[in-house]
Write a structure and sequence with these properties.
mainly beta; 335 residues; globular; four-stranded antiparallel β-sheet; Neuraminidase
Length: 335
């Protein structure tokens, strides 16, 4: 994501429980001339980081992080999207990952003034949704929401469009595969929702999926299932560059295992194919991802699945300050 050539990251702490966990480390694919390098570490390591909301701002010229004004009401697992030089933050969880614990708050953040403005609230509480911008409108899709009585949690395919100029919401065609903790990106004015999970939150276990669906805001229609992602996962980072959607990290939670992924894969909607790229140096979930030029930045996250203790201040903390960079060659970043 671009904010005057500066990468922005929000750190959002989760309510977590202590569980037994272990890392998943898949075999590293051929590098094909691509190598990971390191940049300035993230000042406050955490999970659930998203690369379109400002709390910390990274400038690659001095290789430096700068802390910005925090969101007025703290949440985690929020959705966010950029438009016209501003950043919009939708919903999120105010406590544990649940529908009833979700928020309807919508904030517009202006990097020029470092200030937030409250906008028209979401029609329904939403946690762990995705948001993308197409032609000046923002679409908040999927996630967790409460039941009709306002209690409990269900996974939703709800799709609502926000008009930042009119400050209004419009119901749109729901996503066929209800999910939360998904990845997403926009290519040629179409929204692609990738992977995620069909389990509600993380209790007692999650069910990752590999489903890729395409939504066309112009027709308000969802297309057929696309080529499935190579590594089913949820809760990782995503970024788009030259017509491809890059998906990195993620988590898996079952009754037997609590794990993070190193996998980095790129989806090309033009050819409806996936490319498996050199694995990230560290297995993480809840990591931020964004492009500055042709360089993919992967920032922080937790080196276990959600629910593991942070263990801050120890020799082996689960949350990492790592900030890794992968330069994408022109041949790999173009259609």
């Amino acid at each position: 994501m671009y904010v005057r050539g500066v990468f922005a990251v929000l750190a959002a702490a989760c309510v977590i429980a202590v569980v037994v966990s272990e890392k998943v480390t898949a075999q590293n694919p051929p590098a094909r001339g691509m190598r990971w390098s390191r940049a300035a570490p993230f000042p406050e390591p955490e999970e659930e980081l998203y690369g379109t909301v400002l709390v910390y701002e990274y400038d690659p010229a001095p290789d430096k992080w700068t802390k910005k004004k925090s969101i007025p009401v703290a949440v985690h697992h929020q959705a966010q999207a950029g438009y016209n030089g501003k950043i919009y933050i939708f919903g999120g969880c105010t406590r544990a990952i649940s529908g009833e614990g979700g928020s309807t708050n919508v904030w517009e953040y202006d990097p020029a003034t470092d200030n937030y403005t409250a906008k028209a609230p979401l029609p329904v509480k939403r946690c762990s949704a995705i948001a993308e911008t197409v032609n000046g409108k923002m679409y908040v899709i999927g996630g967790l929401e409460p039941l009709e009585n306002g209690q409990g949690t269900r996974v939703t395919g709800r799709n609502e469009m926000f008009d930042p100029v009119a400050n209004t919401w419009t119901e749109r065609s729901p996503m066929p595969t209800s999910r939360n903790h998904a990845f997403s990106g926009v290519v040629n004015n179409k929204i692609y929702v990738i992977g995620g999970r069909i389990g509600a939150g993380n209790i007692p276990a999650t069910t990752n999926i590999d489903v890729v669906e395409e939504y066309d805001p112009a027709t308000n229609l969802w297309g057929p299932i696309k080529d499935r992602m190579p590594t089913p996962r949820s809760g990782g980072g995503a970024a788009t560059y030259q017509g491809k959607i890059y998906v990195g990290g993620g988590e898996l939670q079952t009754r037997q295992m609590n794990a993070a992924f190193r996998a980095l894969e790129a989806y090309d909607p033009a050819s409806n194919t996936w490319d498996v790229l050199p694995s990230m140096p560290t297995a993480v979930h809840g990591n931020a991802m964004g492009f500055l030029g042709n360089k993919l930045h992967v920032v922080s996250g937790k080196m276990e699945g959600g629910g593991a203790p942070d263990m801050a201040g120890t020799d082996h903390p689960y949350a990492t300050a790592s900030h890794n960079v992968l330069e994408i060659p022109a041949a790999s970043g173009s259609n």
